[in-house]
């Protein structure tokens, strides 16, 4: 575990058994749930400890918790990975942009950036051979700059710091665990096919010196 005083460290304290986190720009929380395909009118404002008891999610069901941060709406998903499914990311990012981070319970971590229904960048933090990008790859570059500045930093925390640069801050444990609009989402089995062509793999360098933050799109 890193000793660096970074804003996202609490996410790796084993409080959550894997989760997905999305940030979508300038779309309200109810519309975000609708884009996920959830039944938005059934959503309730509850705290995290109440979610499983009150909603009683069944097998093949995610729990979605939605809130706002600055100009962004975030969705914190547990018990599933619908947030990083291509069809969901395409829907979330229509007319806007979405950044998604998956911290899987199986140690598979992924960052994706979609703009107006199309993928722009996708990679597993710390794995240069995993990088796929339409052209530039600013999230990869920012992740590597943060890792270069904090040598004890787990790769996924470098990716979260890159997201923090982009959205203008970081989420706190109190925000995630406090009252949020919450509902369940049955999985689509099998997942819907990707509505966009896959991104090409590109060559990437690693651990550059710390540079300026990512500009807004």
Strand order of the largest sheet: 2-9-3-4-1-5-6-7-8
* Number of E-state strands: 9
- Report the oligomer: single chain
Radius of gyration: 16 Å
Distance between the termini: 32 Å
- How many H/I helical runs? 6
How would you spell out the order of helices and strands?
EHEHEEHEEEEHHHE
Helix-strand category? alpha+beta
Percent of residues in β-strands: 25-35%
**What would the principal axes of the Cα set say about the shape?**
globular
Are there runs of 5+ residues with pLDDT below 50, and where?
Answer: none
Mean pLDDT: 90
The major beta sheet can be summarized as: 9 strands, antiparallel
Helical percent range? 10-25%
How would you sum up this structure, described in words?
This protein is of the alpha+beta class. The chain contains 6 helices and 9 strands. Helices cover 24% and strands 25% of the residues. Strands 2-9-3-4-1-5-6-7-8 form a 9-stranded antiparallel β-sheet, sandwiched between helices. β7 and β8 form a beta hairpin. α4 packs across α5. The chain is globular, with a radius of gyration of 16 Å. The model has no long low-confidence stretch (mean pLDDT 90).
């Amino acid at each position: 575990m890193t000793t660096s005083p970074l804003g996202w460290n609490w996410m790796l304290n084993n409080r959550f058994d894997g989760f997905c986190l999305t940030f979508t720009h300038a779309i309200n929380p109810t519309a975000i749930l609708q884009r996920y395909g959830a039944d938005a009118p059934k959503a309730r404002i509850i705290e995290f400890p109440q979610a499983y008891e009150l909603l009683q999610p069944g097998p093949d069901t995610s729990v979605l918790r939605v809130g706002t941060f600055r100009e962004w709406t975030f969705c914190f998903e547990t018990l599933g990975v619908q947030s990083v499914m291509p069809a969901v990311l395409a829907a979330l990012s229509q007319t806007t942009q979405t950044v998604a981070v998956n911290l899987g319970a199986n140690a598979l971590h992924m960052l994706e950036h979609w703009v107006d229904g199309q993928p722009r960048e996708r990679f597993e933090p710390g794995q240069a051979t995993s990088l796929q990008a339409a052209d530039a790859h600013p999230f990869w570059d920012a992740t590597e700059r943060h890792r270069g500045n904090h040598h004890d930093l787990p790769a996924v925390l470098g990716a979260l710091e890159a997201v923090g640069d982009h959205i203008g801050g970081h989420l706190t444990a109190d925000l995630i665990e406090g009252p949020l609009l919450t509902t369940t989402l049955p999985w689509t089995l099998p997942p819907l096919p990707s509505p966009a062509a896959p991104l090409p793999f590109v060559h990437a360098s690693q651990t550059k010196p710390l540079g300026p933050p990512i500009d807004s799109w």
